Amino acid sequence: DNAWASAGGGKILQAQYATGTTTEQSTTSTSFVDVTNGSVAITCAATSSKVLLLATVPFYTPTGSNAMHLTILRDSTNLGDADYGLGKMYTDNYNRDTWTCNYVDSPSSTSAITYKLQFDAQGGTAYVCKQNNKLSFTVMEIGA
């Protein structure tokens, strides 16, 4: 009958963010540590909502044999692999780089949730926000 129904859903209901932080931070820990100023709290309106996570984190590892992992926690749950997180990165020849992550989470909750960026070092020292480079972390509730 050539009738089309509205697609519905997919609307951004809210956005929360931590952005602009330039706090240089380093670690030699092989266990994940919190990124300073890298957490965002959100309370979803419905359990059917999705949460879109957009993270941009400048990082630096002094040598190619020195790597790092970055991940995101939902409260205490690692959204990536327990050992490797959501990504393994390294830089070479003292260059700096940026980790960009787009992740869709299904928290199934209407309670307050805290999403937190974390990183570790593998084989030396790892840095985030080296020399005043800024991180950005945006958390958006997407209606079903």
Can you offer a commentary on this structure?
With 144 residues, this protein is mainly β. 0% of the residues lie in helices and 53% in strands. The protein contains no helices and eleven strands. Strands 1, 2, 4, 8, 10 and 11 form a six-stranded antiparallel beta sheet that branches.
Summed up:
The chain has 144 residues and is mainly beta.
List keywords for this structure.
single chain; 144 residues; 0% helix; mainly beta
| Terminus-to-terminus distance | 27 Å
Contiguous helical run count: 0
Strand content: over 45%
Rg is 17 Å
Question: Mean of residue pLDDT?
Answer: 89
Shape: elongated
Helix/strand class: mainly beta
Helix-strand sequence: EEEEEEEEEEE
Number of strands: 11
Give the fraction of residues assigned to helices: under 10%
Stretches where pLDDT falls below 50 for ≥5 residues? none
Taking the sheet with the most strands, its summary is: 6 strands, antiparallel
